[in-house]
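Contributing new records

If you add data, match the layout below exactly. Sequence lines come first and carry their own label; structure lines follow with theirs. Keep one chain per record. Anything else will be rejected by the validation script.
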Amino acid sequence: ARCWIKNDAVSHPSLSFKDRVVAAAINAARAFGLDTVGCASTGNLANAVAAQAARAGLPAWIFIPHDLELGKVVGTQIYAPNLVRVRGHYDDVNRLCAQVADAFGWGIVNVNLRAYYGEGSKTIAFEIAEQLGWRFPTAVVAPMAGGSLVSKLERGFREVSDAALATGRRPRIYGTQAAGCSPIVNLVHSADEQITPVIPHTIARSIAIGNPADGVFARHAILGSGGTAIAVSDADLVAGIRTLAQDTGIFTETAGGVTVAGALALAAQGAFTPDDELVLCITGNGLKTIEAITDPAYGPVPEAPIIEPRLREVRALVQARLS
């Protein structure tokens, strides 16, 4: 199969696809006259809300799990929002933010502005069709956290099709999650109609949502498109990060590692044919989750040699590497 990368690891201003959804939500907040915005976040959304609120001149209250990766904490603090670390998992943070939205009347982008926030994800589908010359790929693989991305991808492709802007059939949608937090994958492969919440245990913290708000919609989008969902181990997702970097020069965070590892696992199961044209959605930048690839549990990071500034030492090093 032919494979393309939809690379939102270089999205502006905060290096993840969340810049898309926040742009839609912030515009809605301003249209409604809201004077303060905020979010519950596993990291990328915190970065995006803090950055775009600063640009819009709006105060921001950002709520995150207490043990979030340092890169995502610093990537939020630099914009000087009101950053609050909440003891517990993302689902605890999200429940608190629902109460905050009601109590203070703030625009919490993934709570009371969620309908607008989700619309931003459709732009990925629009751009995929446009960048392929206004035709559809045959399959798209994307990570799942709350489930909104997958459901909005399907909706975006459907809108492009309904407007007769692209040729071909709409793509099959494949969703991926880390095995340590895979409630949507579980739902796709069960006869249940509702999510069974789980407690997250994975290094893929940006998608570690145990009770996903849009999980049911994601299931309908996946199965309705003819796709499926798959979960991968933490070790496999780290291998996916390395594979993508070494094969394409793109450094992704853990969610992108889940996408790559999931695509490889699906290929091994025969989900794709030689005639398929895939798009892998890489949703965030690897500089945000350095901890994942430096953890010795998932393989060593090669240590760079230190030499004296002499040509003979370079020659010796080159010879050693070639031998």
